[in-house]
Amino acid sequence: MADNNLRIVVEKNPSESKLSELNIKCWPKWGCSPGKYQLKFDAEETCYLLKGKVRVYPKGSAEFVEFGAGDLVTIPKGLSCTWDVSVAVDKHYKFESSSPPPSSSRQ
């Protein structure tokens, strides 16, 4: 059963001023090739996709959240999900605590 409190928030095409305010260009970068990835978020992550297209399937749910290049995305702490990457991802990201990045295993 999916936990409805663990919602992914997608902001389409945030303004340049918001991106500057968040100082996104100073955040670390991460990327991946197309494929399916099992991820568990041990900390809240905010990321800004420079390129790519992703469908995220929260564990225990048939529904998905889709986002891509130009989107600012907040992923809640505690979310276990599958990332189905159809277009290679390049993103800036930031975790809200000193927790390590999400653990990952390729299917």
Number of strands: 8
Distance between the termini: 22 Å
Oligomer: single chain
CATH fold-type name: Jelly Rolls
Q: How many structural domains are formed by the residues?
A: 1
- Fourth-tier CATH superfamily name: Jelly Rolls
Which shape, going by the Cα principal axes? globular
Order of helices and strands: EHEEEEEEE
Radius of gyration: 13 Å
How many helices? The count is 1
Task: Describe what this molecule looks like in 3D.
This protein has 107 residues and is mainly beta. It has a single domain (9-106), classed as Jelly Rolls. The protein is built from one helix and eight strands; from the N terminus they run E-H-E-E-E-E-E-E-E. The protein has one helix at 16-22; strands spanning 9-12, 29-32, 35-40, 45-58, 65-68, 71-75, 80-95, 103-106. Strands 1, 2, 3, 4, 5, 6, 7 and 8 form an eight-stranded antiparallel beta sheet that branches. The longest helix is centred in the N-terminal third of the chain and has 7 residues, at 16-22. The radius of gyration is 13 Å and the shape is globular. Pfam families: Cupin_3. InterPro entries: RmlC-like_jellyroll, RmlC_Cupin_sf, UGlyAH_Cupin_dom.
